[in-house]
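Hi all, long-time lurker, first post. I run a small reading group and we've been trying to get comfortable going from sequence to structure in the token notation. Rather than ask abstract questions, I figured I'd post a concrete chain and ask someone more experienced to write out its structure so we can walk through it together at our next meeting. Sequence below, copied exactly:
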Amino acid sequence: MVKRIKHSLERLIDKSSRHKTSRAEEDLLNNFVLNEYQNSNWEETSMGNSDEVSQNIYENIQLRIGKKKTFNPYLQYMAAASILFLVGLGIFYKPNITAEKQLSFKTSDTPKSIELSDGSKIYLAANSLFQYPEKFKGEERKVSLLKGNAFFEIAKDKTHPFIITSGEIKTRVVGTSFHIQLSKSKCEVIVVTGKVNVSTNGQSIDLIPNEEALFEAQKLSKQMADKSFLVNWYNTDVTLNQTTLKQVITILQYKYGVSFQYNNEHVLAMPLTVFIKKDASLENVLEQINYITNLKFKVYGEIVKVN
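-- Answer (accepted) --
Happy to help. Here is the structure in token form:
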């Protein structure tokens, strides 16, 4: 019974945070937490001053969602009430529960892959950084893409959603495969199989295969994905038949974590056929393109200049 109540509460709070609750659901949540607050007992010795705790949580919420948002007048009380209810369920203040040990997975000049404790597989592009727990322990499987690009094959587990934080966006899935491409100016999520939810700062969209979410200039939008990204080009050999140089360069940018600089944009429309082995180095692929096009490539760290 307690487990079912806890699950329902978490589900309702999650829907509210993504602005997907109905008016009736929002009223139910407000009435519930207000009732918990009014009928709860706060133990100040171990939990601190209730007014100070609720005020701190309320101020943090304001900072996270911005001054321009409107607030429920009971929000400050809801914060403290939620803590009290979760304490009652035994979620907080359990000395025997240890935090998940976080590990880092980093690549240099070649892509690499890793399998997580739940069986999910992550293919990390070159020059990328990924953080994950040694073993998933909570009701959600949470990881972070801190830099670069990755392809995800998520093991299905309906009771434990998989959530990836990449920059300012969160990608929520159960079992599916998709790309996340993170740069300083934008973040893209491209779905290959299954369904995906992408959210940030009150914005939320759902994606199905062949669709892409683009977060740029603080705006989240949906568009059709480039067909070049609808295969796992991190972990399979890929043949690009009569593809423009622009499409080839786009894949190389994400696979190897580099950016291309060129003086003549007209060369980007040049058609060519390129074979990219899954473990090929960037230099090998550039040599292949050079043989076909006579273009010269110079690699300076994470920048490739085209002459």
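A couple of things your group might point at:
The radius of gyration is 23 Å.
The helical segments are 2-17, 23-38, 44-47, 50-65, 75-88, 245-256, 282-293.
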